[in-house]
Design brief:
With about 80 residues, the chain is mostly helical. It has helices at about 5-15, 20-30, 40-55, 65-75. The chain is built from four helices and no strands.
């Protein structure tokens, strides 16, 4: 397990080389706890809202992350 000092060092190194978009996302998380929705079109927002509503209606209908990874591995031959 990494020490806090190691984690801080890795984060500092990452930030030193991060692009503007990444820095804005990090800043939004730090200041508001939310990620800015900049860049999402109205159509994308609607799709996300529909998927969220479907999840609320049937929260067990999706797949676990492990199931998704296994499926992608099969499809991509990894």
């Amino acid at each position: 397990m990494d020490s806090i000092l190691d984690i801080k060092k890795r984060i500092h190194e990452f930030i030193d080389h991060a692009d503007e978009r990444t820095l804005r996302i990090i800043n939004a998380i730090i200041t508001t706890g939310e990620i800015e929705e900049e860049g999402l079109t109205a159509e994308h927002k609607e799709i996300l809202e529909q998927r969220l509503e479907e999840h609320r209606k049937n929260p067990t209908s999706g797949k676990s992350w492990n199931e998704v990874k296994q499926s992608l591995k099969k499809e991509c031959g990894i």
